[in-house]
Amino acid sequence: MAVTGRLGLLALLAAPVVGFLLPSWAGIGLAAAVLLLVVVLDLLLAGSVRRLQFARSGATSVRLGEECEVTLTVANPGGRPVRAWLRDAWPPSAGAEDRHRLTLPAGERRVVTTRLLPTRRGDRTAVRVTVRSTGPLGLAARQGSHDVPWTVRVLPPFHSRKHLPSRLARLQQLDGRNAVLIRGQGTEFDSLREYVIGDDVRSIDWRASARASDVMVRTWRPERDRHVVLVLDTGRVSAGRVGDAPRLDAAMDAALLLAVLAARAGDRVDLLAYDRQVHAAVQGSTDLLPALVNAMAPLEPSLVETDARGMVAEVLRRTRRRALVVLLTGLDAAPLEEGLFPVLSKLTSRHQLMIASVADPRVAEMAAGRGDAEAVYDAAAAERVLAERRQVTARLARHGVEVVDAVPEDLPPRLADRYLALKAAGRL
């Protein structure tokens, strides 16, 4: 009934115009002419799109896999109400629910909420806001777009934080907080106790043993305030996908777990992301985890060979005192042979080097296949890859380099365990 009444009113208003234009519309039916005029008038009565005013607020960062909300405040300073469909457009990887129905009376404002569920790391920037304002009858509409900038930074998810409590408990044991003494030599003298089988004979305190009725050994605490430098290789080797994510994402997850653990141990943690230039750097941050995830979020693999000489020079320039340098890169023989090995001695002569590499579980699966001739060929190729990785690992070990080679799920805890082992042995 409301629509019929409005249609009659518009037709009544249009009648004088129709009478004036009727001689020129001799070939058009009267009903068609009226309908055309009604559509034109409906368009003229639609609320203005150009005059709408917009402002944004809401989330500026979110972890990958989590949902966030961005609000859009729309104000209508015009004299006619706006009945519209609004699209708040974002890149597809932002996972936006971007279509909204909007009724905005004249002189008022409304708040529209867009939910985002990003599927990729990095900065996700709003594209534009498009509004389609319909007339009272819904027969015609005006449409316009507005640039309303906003950026949401999608941070690394840090899945490996589930391993943190158990590693912190082991760290407390190393620090002596749980009254568990360390066997072996550290760097800071703690106390004396009786010798038991398995103790390092270099820890025997002969003077204390001469005064006691038993052989006494020194116990040690790991030193604090060591220096840990995390180096992310963002070159070609980090672009290879393992499962649904590039190797770089798995390396980031491992680096975050190690960084938080080392910071809790009282060590200074720095980050460097490099391929042929520095893409991110964090040095001496007091709020370490937010600084790291914000620096890592926009990183993407580059399809270029990493300049190992430039990387080593950058590490040496930034790190004067002896440090544990953790290089997260690949163990492919050819890139290492041409890149890292010629400059390896420059790095190992001044720092303790550890290399962490993301292994592809599919290679191990292929190596176990024997079902048919094709599977046997695949297994042979996989065995060759595994043999090359073992040879590279052995060669690095001869240079005093610690190597951690594991699939994405196992790399973070194994890297953390190797750090704790070095800490307990006093090798940092």
Automatic annotation (TrEMBL):
Pfam family, one: DUF58
Keywords: Lipoprotein, Membrane, Transmembrane, Transmembrane helix
Protein name: Lipoprotein
Domain DUF58: 192-395
Residue stretches spanning the membrane: 29-47
InterPro entries: DUF58
